[in-house]
Amino acid sequence: MKSYQFFTNDGRGGTMLCDDDTLECAVSELTKRFKGVIKVQYGSEVWEAPEPPIQNPESPPPEQIDP
C-alpha cells in the first residue's frame, strides 16, 4: 500500500492510501474521485495537470476573430 499526496485547484488536498502500484494509476483514481486535482505526489515522483493557456482579457476568443 502506498501513500499519495494530492492537491486541488481550490487549495484543498490530502493523503490517500491505495494499492495502486504506479503514479499514473493513482492519478487516474484521484482525478475520478476528487474534482480539480492538479498535483499528485509520491516521494520524489510528481504529476501536475497541464495548465490551460492564459488568454489576454482584452483580446476576443479565437472563434470570434475574423480572418
Polypeptide structure, described:
There is one protein chain. This protein has 67 residues and is α+β, with helices and mostly antiparallel strands. The protein has one domain. Helix content is 16%, strand content 34%. The chain has one helix spanning 23-33; strands at 2-8, 13-18, 37-42, 45-48. Strands 2-1-3-4 form a 4-stranded antiparallel sheet, covered by helices on one side. A hairpin with a 4-residue loop joins strand 1 (2-8) and strand 2. The mean pLDDT is 85.
Distance between the termini: 55 Å
Strand arrangement across the biggest beta sheet: 2-1-3-4
The stretches of 5 or more residues where confidence is low (pLDDT under 50) are none
The number of strands is: 4
What about the largest sheet? 4 strands, antiparallel
- Helical stretch tally: 1
The structural class is: alpha+beta
Q: Write down the Rg.
A: 16 Å
Order of helices and strands: EEHEE
Amount of helix = 10-25%
**Number of self-contained structural domains:** 1
Strand fraction equals 25-35%
Average pLDDT rating: 85
Q: What would you call the shape?
A: elongated
